[in-house]
Amino acid sequence: MAGSSNSMNSLEQKTETQQSAPVQLGSSHISQNRFEPYFDAMTPRNITALVGKSAYLSCRVRNLGNKTVSWIRHRDIHILTVGSYTYTSDQRFQANHHTENDEWTLQIKWAQKRDAGIYECQISTQPVRSYFVNLNLVEISEEESYKPPQDESYKCNCSCPPDDSVPTAQVLGGPDLYVDMGSTINLTCSVKYSPEPPAYIFWYHGGEVISYDSSRGGVSVITEKGDVTTSFLLIQHADISDSGKYSCNPSNANVASVRVHVLNGERPAAMQTGSARLSKSSLNIVALLVISYIYQMCTYNQCPSLGAVR
């Protein structure tokens, strides 16, 4: 009987062990699935960039953990980057990781037409997980810019760009800007239709990059990034040497230019016409002030006599 009792206890212990094991495995399996890496499906899959500028392809990876992210060019299955390291002799390719939004960006500097095609963002899971981005490249000249429809009855009250639009830069107030010597030159460059703000905006004067810490002094730039990125170039105490062509060169858009004329007292024909109109307006304002003065005097029974008016 004792032997039979021991045998029954052994069997019960074995049964309890067999029943508890699957519960632990199941719990572990669910926890593992819950934290697997995945792609943010809201990341753009079609990117348009300009030839000769930098192109930026991005993918967002959540719950990456100890896995790595790689970028692969699909036309030749060439591994370009793994993590933050570049695995190609073409130094135009570079990977950037933005930890604040889990974004992995492949930068292609000085993009060429041959760079167009499909790129794969890959997570090193088993099996691997992939997110495909298509890069389109277009050429645009310095003079080209987006023009609204010619039909005046058409009113665009939305910020959505046309389907075939590309990032476009424009310097406001062009093509010519006149300023007085000693005043402040204020140039405004806006970049529209860009899927993301430009990485940088360079200003040029006469083909040379403007140095903000040069011995001249008084030069500053303010850039506001958003759906429309705006860069303000301020040059204080304008001098004749500040005249010339100024160009706004964003990283992802065409070059936009304006010609600045610093005047030393002279007035071109266009500005003289404006001055004449201003003088006429000033006379009208003076006449209104005189009439208002006479009306107020008459209100208090102190109307000036006609002889006085004459």
Describe the protein in words.
- Residues 37-134, 167-259 form the Ig-like domain.
- Residues 1-27 are annotated as: Disordered.
- Pfam families: I-set, Ig_3.
- Residues 11-32, 142-160, 272-282 and 306-310 have low confidence and may be disordered.
- The chain has helices at 2-34, 269-299, 306-309; strands at 38-39, 46-50, 55-62, 69-73, 78-82, 85-86, 93-98, 103-108, 117-123, 129-138, 168-171, 176-180, 185-192, 201-205, 208-209, 219-224, 229-235, 244-250, 256-263.
- The termini are far apart.
- The protein has 310 residues and is of the alpha+beta class.
- It is elongated and about 95 Å long.
- Helix content is 22%, strand content 35%.
- A hairpin with a 4-residue loop joins β7 and β8.
- The strands form four sheets. A six-stranded mixed sheet has the order 2-10-9-4-5-6, with no helix packed on it. Strands 12-19-18-14-15 form a five-stranded mixed sheet, with no helix packed on it.
- The chain is built from three helices and 19 strands.
Order of helices and strands: HEEEEEEEEEEEEEEEEEEEHH
Q: What is the 3D form?
A: elongated
pLDDT < 50 runs, ≥5 residues: 11-32, 142-160, 272-282, 306-310
State mean pLDDT (0 to 100 scale). Answer: 74
Q: Could you estimate the helical fraction of the residues in percent? A: 10-25%
Number of helices: 3
Helix/strand/pairing category: alpha+beta
Q: How does the major sheet shape up?
A: 6 strands, mixed
Termini distance? 143 Å
- Strand order in the largest sheet: 2-10-9-4-5-6
Our estimate of the beta-strand percent is: 25-35%
Assembly form of the protein: single chain
Q: State Rg.
A: 34 Å
How many β strands by DSSP? 19
Region (Disordered): 1-27
GO biological process, one term: synapse organization
Pfam family, one: Ig_3
Domain Ig-like: 37-134, 167-259
